[in-house]
Write a structure and sequence with these properties.
It comes from Flaviaesturariibacter amylovorans. The protein is of the alpha/beta class. The chain has 11 helices and 8 strands. The chain has a single domain (about 20-270), classed as 3-Layer(aba) Sandwich (Rossmann fold), CATH 3.40.50.
C-alpha cells in the first residue's frame, strides 16, 4: 500500500510540473487596437524569482496567436526543457509582419518588434538584454522572424525561420495579401525592400545568431535554399537544415525543438549580455 501511495505521489508530482500558458491582450498605440497573445512560462518560472530569456514565436498566414500552443502539442514540453519564456503574438490573417506603406493603420512591424516586447518586459520576469532575446516563426512568420530580427538586430540577438516565405517579391497572388500591403506588384524595389533579401544588402554592424530550416518536400523550400545561398555568399554565419517533411504542423512541431535548442545555446553563451 505504501509503495502504491509513493508511486501515486511521484506521478502526481511529475504531471504537475508543466509550462503555464497565459492569454493576454496587448494594446497597439500604432494601430489603435488590441490583439491577443499567448505567453508560455516554463515550470521553473513559478518556483523561483529568476528571470528568463525570451523567444518570440510567430504564426503563419491565416493563423492566429494560439496556433502554436494548440497545434504544436510538444511545445510546452520544449519550453520546460529549454527553460525559456515563449511569446506568441497575433500577426493577424496576413499581416506579413510589416509596416505597410499603403495602409497607415497596418503597423505590425512596430507592434511585434516594439509594442509587444515592451508589454512583456513590463509584466514578466524576462531578461532585458539583446543576448537574451530571439525571434522566429513558421512560413509567413518565418519571413517575420528573419525580417524583424535583421531590422531590429540591436534588440534581438538571435533570429530564425521555419519553412519561411522569404521571397515576398515573388508572392504576387492576391489571396496572400502582399499586394494589399505593398501596392502594385510592378514595384519590385518596394517588395524587395520589405523582404529579408533586401535587408541582407544593407551594411551590418550587429552580428545575429541565425537559424533556418525547411522540409525537403515543402512547396516553398526553394525560398529557404535561396536564403541559405545568399547568406553563404555574404559570408554571414548561420545554421541551415533540411529534413524530411512538408509545409505542415507535424514538421513544425518537430522543427521548433531544434530552434529552441539553438536559442538556448545562444542565450547561455551570452548570459552576461
Amino acid at each position: 500500500m505504501k509503495r502504491i501511495l509513493l508511486l501515486a505521489t511521484l506521478l502526481s508530482s511529475l504531471y504537475a510540473r508543466s509550462a503555464d500558458v497565459d492569454t493576454v491582450s496587448i494594446a497597439s498605440a500604432a494601430m489603435g487596437r488590441s490583439l491577443k497573445c499567448v505567453v508560455i512560462r516554463p515550470d521553473a518560472y513559478a518556483r523561483g524569482t529568476d528571470s528568463f530569456a525570451t523567444v518570440y514565436l510567430l504564426h503563419g498566414l491565416t493563423g492566429r496567436y494560439d496556433n502554436w500552443v494548440q497545434k504544436a502539442r510538444s511545445l510546452k514540453e520544449y519550453v520546460d526543457r529549454y527553460n525559456v519564456v515563449v511569446v506568441c503574438p497575433d500577426g493577424a490573417f496576413n499581416s506579413w509582419y510589416l509596416d505597410s506603406p499603403e495602409d497607415p493603420k497596418h503597423r505590425f512591424e512596430t507592434y511585434i518588434a516594439q509594442e509587444v516586447p515592451a508589454f512583456i518586459e513590463s509584466r514578466y520576469r524576462v531578461r532585458r538584454a539583446r543576448g537574451q532575446r530571439a525571434i522566429t516563426g513558421l512560413s509567413m512568420g518565418g519571413h517575420g522572424g528573419l525580417y524583424l530580427g535583421l531590422r531590429h538586430s540591436r534588440f534581438f540577438g538571435a533570429a530564425g525561420g521555419m519553412s519561411g516565405a522569404y521571397a515576398i517579391e515573388n508572392i504576387t497572388e492576391k489571396q496572400y495579401g502582399v499586394s494589399r500591403l505593398l501596392g502594385d506588384t510592378a514595384s519590385k524595389a518596394r517588395y524587395r525592400a520589405h523582404s529579408i533579401f533586401g535587408e541582407l544588402e544593407k551594411p551590418r554592424t550587429d552580428t545575429l545568431a541565425l537559424i533556418l530550416d525547411c522540409g525537403v518536400d515543402d512547396f516553398i523550400v526553394d525560398m529557404s535554399r535561396a536564403a541559405h545561398k545568399r547568406l553563404l555568399e555574404l559570408k554571414i554565419a548561420h545554421d541551415y537544415t533540411e529534413r524530411p517533411g512538408k509545409h505542415d504542423w507535424p514538421y513544425w512541431n518537430n522543427a521548433v525543438q531544434y530552434q529552441l535548442l539553438f536559442f538556448r545555446n545562444y542565450f547561455d553563451r551570452n548570459a552576461s549580455r
